[in-house]
Each structure stands twice: as structure tokens, then as C-alpha cells.
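Complex record, two chains
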Amino acid sequence: MVVTRSSGAGFKPNSPRTRTALRWNWDFLFLIPALSLFSVFVLYPFCSIFFRSVYQWDGVNQATFVGLKNFIEILTRDYGFWLAMRNALYWAPITIVAQMIVGFALAYILTSGVPFQSIFRAIIYFPAIVSPIVVGIVWQRIYNPFGGLLSDIGAAWHIPALMIPFLSDPKIAIFSVIVVNIWQWTGYSMILYVAGLKTIPEEILEAGTLDGAGVFKRITRIIWPMLRHVHLTLILLGIIGTLQTFPIIYVMTQGGPNHATEMLPNYIFTQAFRLQAVGYASALSVILLLLALSLSVFQMKVFGSRFAT
Amino acid sequence: MPNVKLSKSFGFVFAGLVALVWLVPVVMMLAVSFMPPNQRAPKFGGLLINGVSLDNYRTVFSDAPILRHLVNSLIIACSSVLLVVLFGSLAGYAFARLRIRWKETWFFLLISALMLPIPTMIVPLFQVNKTLGLLDNYLGLILPYAAFGTPLALIIFRSFFEGLPLEVEEAAKVDGCSKLGIYWRIVMPISWPAIAAVVIFQFMASFNEFVLALVTIDRNELKPMTLVPLMYSGQFMARPGVMFATLALITIPVLVIYVLMQRYLTRGMIAGAVKG
């Protein structure tokens, strides 16, 4: 019995129905633990968001069915929501481009045999492992206009541009937080580029040199295009990362001043846990999930799914 | 070749400068944490201090049950790591070696959780925990962390198992070893590179996770490290040194794991790069 069921080579064409039935009962058990966790903590919550999004509900009392009212409200007159969307449109491109360029430059330099290169790599990667809570509080102090690092430097060397309220001026607050995000995650893209560079065969790089291609040409014409899969991965990660940005906003600005640094997860949190508008927050979550899913599916359709393995 | 030498020293200077800038916040965190408590208004946000003292760390240990919070974090992180390694490798083995109906559909379904990170699902996760009575309970964090960590583990394990040579498993099969036996006694013991990658990712993710912990754990003695800075932010407000000592202490465990296991990190990151 065990032998008939186990390997692909030894199948006898007996009744196909019993065969599949047996396989279902036995091999499928390997998936049960993962599937049960998945159903309770991923699938059910996922479905329940959609269900709750058409109710007005404070999370405790009886919910009232309101149809699409939450969605109409969000899309037509929710100031916080639209600022969060605008900020996502700043956040994703700025972060992604900065991380790709700096990350690639660092990866290129730090795989070329520079002294102490592994130490440099470790230093630049380090912020990626630090809790965003820690990062947020430390940078708050750097940005603090009263005795913070930047304002002190500005005062010492007479640079007024460094003596501004980085986090409380609504015009620049979001960019100040984006800088922190770039600082935290550039090392991650660098490591991915290092891994990508190692897959490019030595001969290709040497062939370029013999043909008389300079360093710059070699980078732009040969190496950069060959790292296509890494670029795509970073774009995808950057978009997903933008849509799930929470702790750093929560710690540094709480989305303020007046939603100037609002991001969707923080806005959802505020609605659900501060204003007790659970139905409304669910509708916001539906929009966020649909955004995340459609962007991911779009990327997979365009670029192919397992491009980085 | 002078050209190569020149570009190398340029590269060294560039990378050195970037690394220096990158270090500033880290150095500032440490400097402020070692700042003597009597120092008022330190220069450059605390980058320059006029002496080193351990007083802030002493205050943290005496005023806040920091070790208790560390133990909470370790219990939560280690349990979720254990579940993820076990569940992820079982399923990964099935996907790599066994015959399952609609295999790729199940696989896609399971890894789709990568597209639904915890912050986007916080409202219903809170409701699920409430319904199951898991608020103020380690399990209210352990189980969701494991559920959201399993997809990445699944990808890492599946691709690792698929790369293993079949011969040993075939031999064990001929000797009458069951599938579960092959998985547990033959495959798992030689899979430590994949296990290490999963351990490091899951540990860091669950140790640093914030938003679910924030809404799930309300009782102070159950709170993990990641909530500590906010718990004491009022109390430590006027004492940045104590706050920054706390931040440094929170960073140590992840740093230790990172240093111990960084060899396996790249592998996991590349597998994890399908994330999305």
C-alpha cells in the first residue's frame, strides 16, 4: 500500500477514484496545520472585512446595515483618506527611486574589493533590523527643532535650512518621514543588489572591459539591465511596504499635523481604535486591500510571478 | 592599473561617507543612553556628551520590569518561530515532494498572505482575537504571527527541498520509512540552512511587530519589548537618557540574532523577494 501510494513511477492503473481518495487522506495532512492557521487568521479576517464594510458599527453594540454609504463617504468627502492617498503617491516613488539608486551604487562599490567592504555593508544594512519604534523615536530627536541634532548643526554652522520644524510643518513633514524610511531600508535593497551582482558571470563584465567600455558604460549598458529581476522585486516591495507603513508614522507624527503625514494603515487604526468606527475602518481596509491586491496582481501579470527566486 | 586604483579609492571614500552618515542615528542613540543624568542640554542632540555613565541603564532596570518584557517578547517570538518552522516545512515538503491535488492552487492560496500584511488586517484580527478570547494572551500574538510568517517559510522550504537530491529519500522509502518519517528523520536534519533563514526572518518579524501587539495586549506585565518605549514615554519624557537606554536594550536581541545568523540572511531575503 505504502509503495503504491508514494512514488510517481510505480503507479498501477487501478481504480483512479480510490487512488486519489487515498492520496487526499494521507499526503494532504501535511498541509492541515498551515491551512488551519491560514483559515482562522488570514482567510476569515479577509472575508470579514468585506462583510463589515457595509455596516455602521462601533465594535460593541448592534451594527446597522448601511450599504455602500461608508465607501461613498470615504471617496467623496474624506479629507484624511485623500491626504493618505496623496502621501502614498509621494512615499512610494521617492522611496523606491532613492533606494534603487543608492542601494545599487553601494552594492556595486562594496562588491568590487574595497577595503572593509563587509563592515560597510553591515553598517548600512543595520537599520533594517532595528524596530521601527526605535528608529522613530531616535529620528524624532534628530529632527527636534529645540536642541535636536539637525537644529544644533544648523545653529553651529549658521545653516537656517536645518533649523526648521521638520515634523510639524505640514508642507515638509511627510518628506521628513520619507527620509527616515529611506535611511532604514536602503541597506535591504543594497543586499538584494549584492546578491544579484554575484549572479552575473565574471566573463560578461570582463568582455565589456576588453571591448573598450568604460566603467560608466559597463554599468548602464550591461550590469543595470541584467539586474532587471532585482529592480522589479524592489519596486514591488516598495509598493507593498508603502501600503503597510504604520509604526514609524504612529511613533513620529501620529499622522499629523492635521493628516499631513497620514498613511492608510494609520488612518484605519485611528478610525477603528480611537473613534470606534469599526465599520468605516473596515471599508477603508477593503480599499487598502483592493489596492494592494490589484497592484500585486498587475505586477505579476506584467513581469511574471516568481521572478526573484 | 592606476585607473582601477583611483576608482577603488573613490569607491572607498563614497562608501565610507555613506556609512558614516548611516551610523549617526545609531551613535546618537548610544551616546544619549550613556549620557550622565545631570547633563542638561547636550550638544548636537546628544551626539557629544561630557562623560559616560551607566546610570540610565540602572534606572531602566530599577524603574521598569524590562527583563519581564524581554521574556514576554522571547516567549512570543520563539513560539511563533517554532510553529512557522514546523508548519512551513511540513507544507513545504508536501509541495516539493508529495502528490497533492490542485497543488499550485493551494500553494498560491497559502502564499497570498504575503500580499496582506498585518497592518492592513488589523481591524478583523483584533475582532478574531476578541472572539477567541485571545486578548491579553500570548497566543493572540503567537498564532497570527505564525499565520502571517508561514508563507515566506513555505517559499523558502519548498525551494530548498526541491533542490535536495532524491536518492537518500528514495533509499529510505525502499527501507519502508513512512513519508512523515522521511520528512522528520531524513530531510529536516539536512535542511538547517533553510531552517536558519526562516528562524532569522520570523524571529525579527515577530520581535519587532508593533501594531497587533498594541491592540492585543493591554496588561502591562504581558507587554512585549516593542511596546515598552510608548508605555514609559510619559514617565521618561523628561529623561531622554533613560528612554534611549531602553531603545538600545530593545535593539540588542535582534542584533545578537543578526550577528549569529547573518550568513543565512541573504538566502532568505532572496527567497523572500517574491514577497508580493
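Note: The two ends of chain A are 36 Å apart (CA to CA).
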